[in-house]
From TrEMBL, chain A:
Membrane topology: Multi-pass membrane protein
Listed GO MF terms: transmembrane transporter activity
InterPro entries on file: ABC_transp_permease
Designated name of the protein: Branched-chain amino acid ABC transporter permease
Source organism: Sinorhizobium saheli
From TrEMBL, chain B:
Key words, A-Z: Cell inner membrane, Cell membrane, Membrane, Transmembrane, Transmembrane helix, Transport
Chief site of localization: membrane
Pfam family, one: BPD_transp_2
Name used for this protein in its record: Autoinducer 2 import system permease protein LsrD
Location in or out of the cell: Cell membrane
Organism whose genome encodes this protein: Sinorhizobium saheli
Membrane topology: Multi-pass membrane protein
Function recorded in the entry: Part of the ABC transporter complex LsrABCD involved in autoinducer 2 (AI-2) import. Probably responsible for the translocation of the substrate across the membrane.
One GO CC term on file: plasma membrane
Cross-referenced InterPro entries: ABC_transp_permease
Membrane-spanning residues: 28-49, 69-95, 107-127, 134-152, 172-194, 226-248, 254-275, 282-299, 305-325
Gene Ontology molecular function terms on file: transmembrane transporter activity
Length: 327, 334, 537
């Protein structure tokens, strides 16, 4: 019964997998499972969590956003430049600016997908190179280093509230907001409807293109926020920050049980998928496995995750014979 | 319906001759773009028209184009393979490892191609055997294959390739024509024939247009798709030999990000990302265009990343423009 | 015997309803009536490339009354439903709601005007909960504008109860069987305060008990003053539940009135129209030796105990209601799905077919029902469509020979009287009828021994229909064995030498051409027993 419940519920299955993973590590390295260390792991994974939430919304609508990491890098750079040019600018204003720019970049993706019907993978493949190229145009390839950033700019993510860094708090806030958006707003439910059955969504009066557009706006905004967080946390901004990170984001979603075919997935799933990758990344040095193994492990995990999800999603055949109808 | 007026007994095979069809094709547009870039480059820089400079320039697309040919077939069939760049890294690592064990050039080539085929087999089995979506599977194997290279190499590099091995990436067949460029031309012909002149190629189009109808029509869908992933693996192995030979060393970050450039090349070449249409001549032209843009910008001292903006804009606009054009025409017709 | 009683009681029920509820004069003379239609369609026409789906049809639906829409497949019923629900826009004609002319440019606008439909293929979301499926798009919100799940689930529970369902509204839809999904669709229709409810074959997937619960529900909807359009192929339920009828044939209105004034035979006659058989070019063919023998075919969920023989030169009709398992069986015969048991012999030899490729090689081909999805490859030229299954014959050692391909395509498209500008034209640019000719040409070009045609004339124009029928007859006379799956009674009766009727995955009757009547077919397919002919069911 328990096993059946586990197999049916992707999130529980993933949670169990993470628990097993942590337990295995704890057997030999009890220090890994102290509250402080686990909180550190979470903090380290916070940005991936935020990004995975945005990607989830896009993937739910049967689209994909390959431009998230480039969007992050551009917004992060602009935030750093704003701070370097106007050190007096309040940090919340800079964050808002980064989010607004992220939203704008997401809007461009969304508009191309909605109004021109260009396949999402092509649109975001194109904007991925454009956005990253724009950073170069802005900076001429120069770095913005820690000493050019104001202390307040760098300190915010690290600032501790009730013993927990703001970075963690922000990601928890985003999780809470996304739970609200996905679960309790018509837009959130429309994401599911559009991806689950676009044809039926039209019958229900949902505009498929418009819904996708808003999904991209959402992913863009979250990428913008992550841009500031990334740059301030690592205290450096340059063209190639988070290069290739778009695939980690998608990996977190896939591991979290979000179906690339759309319509299936949840906020806890995306969060757990990101945490799974975060635990692996943080555990490797502890258990004396070269951090270089991380990539191969996450690749293997992606493949296993997609195979497990596909099994769960496999459709039942048509039932015509009356006696065969179980329910 | 216009089709009702024509006498049924003698339907012509084709209405338009070969010339008209060529003129109306995507490839014709690409030829114009390529010519314009060629002209622009020759005007902008006196060094552009030098044969040796042009020959050097071919190296920045030949290896990608080899894979792009196989990728074109995969995309026409409605799938995608994002793991190709990682296969390059893994195959290169395997060859580098073999060098440490004292293997010589023929063995290295066999290992490069063999690892490519092996990786293609893994992709093919996961996608056609288990029926998993290719985009996710190859994102996974992309991490896996490159990750294996990282495990082997860490932040180290393999060097010390035998001298005879250097020929694949640095040798010339005749005058300014490098081995790589010759291979590029040969593969263009082979893939052109395979896609446009064989039953296999027809099956690829049929699957990409309508997989269900192709299956009902007796096309062995799984077998064809499996073969396609073998081919991208094999081409990645081949490209890995050329690239490793040209660089003379292997780092795990070799060919990083190439998968997106290769997909861009294929889409720019007129292959529909949703499957069903596209041609090898289109991909050849796209490779030449991307090569010339890179080279031309390089001569003008424009950094590569600015070039990538140009390629990104090109990618979106070549797909958006026909759509906008069609809409404008429809609006005018009303 | 039981069926006859049911039939009688249905008739009485209809009469009682008439006496109790409705004054026929009021219904017939609507201009002077106090009872205004909830919705009126006038002079609606709709064409698709090559097909005129509806021509100048009118329909009025009255509050508190059930109108049965009757017609064969392809008569225009589903086009009408799509116009009513805003999926299609009519080419001409007027839709009127409460004396005002309206248009339904989108599905949402139709829903807002109070029109809702319960579809044959339930258009719902498998991954969402039952409650959400009911309320998607109009979920109750709390004062912060957020979806109020508590109220949503409670309301859903109440609606489900009204629909006669007793399951938990929080479970996911995909965990329900087809019948229960249908009840969810009905609950959804109840949730929007619709004045007009369209039920498109609502009982097709329901069990006996569920059907009776549905009848009770319809009575409640009537009592609430809803106008109901009820589409069904089952005459017993039409007489049981409907007050009025409207019959469509080939996109035109051929009859309407009060159910109490007509008999089942009247309706069948209107529906079928022309004298059956007269326009069908069926040639008398000497039936030869058995070619194909199927025995004991079964599948866990789709069909069972299918056994029959097919002879040389014979056209064997497979009749049944939509969803009776005919296509599923045929597809399993050519290796798309695997049967759990059963044997096939072709010319006396046992065959094991694991894929369509093997079926084609053996000489059995299947022309699928879903032309756009399974038959034609619309993005490819005509000649490439025709030669796809025959490439091994037109090519040489794996290399295409275009001259051979064009020759083969020319030969077979000419035999089928295809109308096209050139053989290089994409199939998607042809009319439905001509697309179907390309698809049939494709299969014939493989030179099969047995050809299975699944709804070969569905959704194509009269002219193309005649061409397909003539050709089918020609093929049989040349010694080909033909299986024709069709839900059109005239086609079945006009073309078949023998007919097998399937119902719910099983063979429900076998008839020779000489003993065929429309009534026998309808009764066998619907599972109504008759006193005269005990062979059905």
């Amino acid at each position: 019964m328990m096993a059946k419940l586990l197999l049916k519920n992707r999130e529980l299955l993933l949670l169990a997998a993470i628990a097993v993973l942590v337990a295995l590590i704890a057997l030999r390295f009890p220090a890994f499972v102290t509250v402080a260390n686990l909180a550190g792991v979470y903090n380290d994974t916070s940005i991936l969590v935020i990004l995975a939430l945005g990607q989830m919304a896009v993937i739910l609508t049967r689209c994909i956003d390959l431009s998230m990491a480039a969007n992050l890098a551009l917004c992060g750079m602009v935030a750093a430049m704003l701070n370097a040019a106007f050190p007096g600018l309040p940090i919340p204003l800079i964050i808002l600016a980064a989010m607004a720019l992220g939203a704008l970049l997401g809007t461009i993706n969304g508009a191309l997908v909605w109004k021109l019907d260009i396949p999402p993978i092509v649109v975001t493949l194109g904007t991925l190179t454009i956005y990253r190229g724009l950073i170069f145009l802005l900076t001429d390839g120069k770095w913005i280093n820690a000493h050019e950033m104001s202390d307040a700019f760098k300190a915010l993510p690290r600032l501790e509230l009730a013993g927990t860094p703001v970075l963690s708090w922000l990601s928890l806030l985003m999780i809470a907001l996304m739970v609200l958006v996905m679960g309790r707003t018509p837009l959130g439910r429309a994401f599911y409807a559009v991806g689950g059955n676009p044809h039926a969504a039209v019958y229900t009066g949902i505009d498929v293109g418009r819904t996708r557009f808003f999904a991209y706006c959402l992913s863009g905004t979250l990428a913008g926020l992550s841009g500031y967080l990334w740059v301030s946390r690592y205290a450096v901004a340059y063209v190639d920050i988070a290069a290739g990170f778009e695939l980690d984001i998608i990996a977190a979603c896939v591991i979290g049980g979000i179906s690339i075919a759309g319509g299936i997935g949840s906020v806890p799933g995306a969060v757990l998928g990101a945490l799974f990758l975060g635990v692996i990344k943080n555990a490797l040095p502890v258990i004396n496995i070269s951090p270089f193994a991380q990539m191969a492990i996450s690749g293997t995990v992606i493949i296993i995750a997609v195979a497990v999800n596909a099994r769960a999603e496999r459709r039942k055949g048509r039932v015509i014979l009356k006696k065969a109808e179980a329910v | 319906m216009a089709d009702a007026q024509i006498s049924p007994r003698n339907i012509p095979d084709r209405l338009e001759g070969r010339g008209v069809r060529l003129l109306k094709s995507w490839e014709a547009l690409l030829v114009v773009v390529a010519a314009a870039i060629f002209l622009g480059n020759s005007l902008a820089s006196p060094y552009f028209l030098d044969p040796w400079n042009l020959s050097d320039a071919t190296f920045n697309f030949t290896e990608k184009a080899m894979i792009a040919f196989a990728m074109a077939l995969v995309i026409i069939s409605g799938e995608i393979d994002l793991s190709v760049a990682s296969i390059i890294a893994f195959a290169s690592t395997a060859m580098g490892y073999a060098v440490q064990l004292g293997f010589d050039t023929p063995a290295l080539v066999a290992i490069g191609l063999g690892v490519g085929l092996l990786c293609g087999t893994v992709n093919g089995l996961l996608i056609t055997g288990l029926g998993l979506p290719s985009i996710v599977v190859t994102i996974g194997t992309m991490s896996l294959f490159r990750g294996l290279s990282f495990i082997v190499l860490g932040d180290q590099a393999f060097t010390g390739y035998p001298e005879s091995f250097a020929w694949f990436g640095q040798g010339y067949v005749w005058w300014v024509f490098s081995f790589e460029f010759a291979l590029f031309l040969l593969l263009a012909v082979i893939y052109g024939v395979l896609l446009h002149k064989t039953n296999f190629g027809r099956a690829v189009y049929a699957i990409g247009n309508n997989q269900t109808a192709a299956l009902f029509s007796g096309v062995r869908v799984a077998r064809v798709k499996f073969t396609l992933f073998l081919l991208t693996g094999l081409m990645a192995g081949l490209a890995s030999i050329c690239l490793t030979s040209r660089l003379g060393s292997t780092r795990p970050s070799i060919a990083l990000g190439w998968e997106l450039e290769i997909v861009t090349m294929v889409v720019l070449g007129g292959v529909n990302i949703l499957g069903g249409s596209g041609t090898i001549p289109g991909v050849v032209l796209a490779a030449l265009i991307m090569g010339m843009v890179t080279f031309g910008f390089g001569l003008l001292n424009v950094p590569g990343i600015v070039m990538s903006i140009f390629i990104g804009l090109l990618l979106i606009s070549v797909i958006a423009l026909p759509i906008l054009w069609q809409r404008a025409r429809r609006r005018l017709a009303h | 015997m039981r069926g006859f009683e049911k039939h009688l009681s249905a008739k009485t029920a209809a009469q009682m309803k008439r006496l109790k509820l409705v004054d026929p004069l009021l219904l017939q003379d609507t201009t002077t009536s106090r009872m205004k239609p909830a919705i009126t369609l006038e002079g609606i026409s709709k064409s698709f490339p090559g097909v005129r789906a509806l021509s100048d049809v009118s329909l009025a639906l009255y509050p508190g009354s059930v109108t049965a829409l009757i017609g064969e497949n392809g008569a225009g019923k589903s086009t009408l439903v799509k116009i009513l629900t805003g999926i299609y826009q009519p080419d001409s004609g007027v839709i009127r709601v409460a004396d005002e002319d309206v248009t339904f440019p989108t599905a949402l606008s139709a829903a807002r005007a109070g029109v809702t439909a319960i579809h044959q293929e339930t258009v719902l979301f498998d991954e969402l909960s039952v409650a959400e499926n009911i309320f998607l798009g109009h979920a109750p919100r709390n004062r912060f504008g957020l979806i109020d799940w508590k109220k949503l689930n409670a309301d859903a529970q109440a609606l489900l109860q009204r629909a006669g369902a007793d399951f938990d509204p929080t479970i996911r839809l995909r965990d329900l069987g087809i019948a229960k999904k249908h009840l969810v669709a009905i609950a959804r229709a109840l949730s929007v305060d619709a004045q007009v409810v369209i039920m498109d074959e609502p009982t097709a997937a329901l069990s006996h008990k569920e059907i009776h619960e549905l009848y009770a529900l319809i009575e409640r909807l009537k009592a609430d003053g809803k106008a109901i359009l009820f589409i069904s192929h089952k005459f017993d339920e039409i007489f049981r539940i409907a007050d009025r009828y409207t019959v469509f044939r080939d996109g035109t209105l051929v009859g309407e009135g009060l159910i109490a004034d007509v008999s089942q035979d009247d309706l069948v006659r209107m529906m079928v129209g022309r004298a059956v058989g007269s326009v069908y070019p069926k040639k008398a063919v000497a039936i030869g030796e058995p070619v194909l023998a199927v025995s004991g075919y079964r599948h866990p969920t789709e069909f069972e105990d299918i056994s029959f023989e097919l002879r040389r030169g014979e056209i064997l009709g497979f009749y049944g209601l939509v969803g009776a398992g005919r296509s599923e069986f045929m597809q399993s015969l050519i290796g798309i799905t695997r049967p759990s048991a059963g044997a096939v012999r072709l010319d006396g030899e046992v065959l094991v077919i694991r894929s369509p490729a093997e079926a084609i090689r053996a000489g059995i081909v299947y022309v699928p029902e879903e032309r756009g999805r399974q038959g034609a490859i619309i993005g490819m030229p005509i000649f490439q469509n025709v030669t796809l299954p025959s490439l091994s014959r037109t090519s040489r050692s794996g290399f295409l020979k275009l001259a051979n391909e064009f020759a083969l395509a020319r030969e077979y498209t000419a035999r089928l009287d295809l109308r096209a500008a050139s053989l290089d034209q994409d199939v998607g640019t042809l009319s439905g009828g001509n697309q179907q000719k390309v698809v049939i040409a494709k299969w014939l070009a493989t030179k099969p021994k047995v050809i299975i045609l699944d709804e070969p004339t569905k959704g194509i124009d009269i002219g193309s229909k005649a061409a397909v029928h003539a050709f089918m007859s020609e093929l049989a006379s040349q010694g080909l064995s033909v299986i024709m799956v069709s839900s059109e009674i005239p086609e079945i009766m006009g073309m078949s030498d023998r007919v097998i009727v399937m119902r719910e995955g099983r063979i429900a009757g076998r008839f020779d051409r000489a003993e065929l009547t429309a009534e026998k077919l309808v009764r066998a397919a619907a599972g109504i027993e008759t006193q005269v002919n005990g062979r059905a069911a």
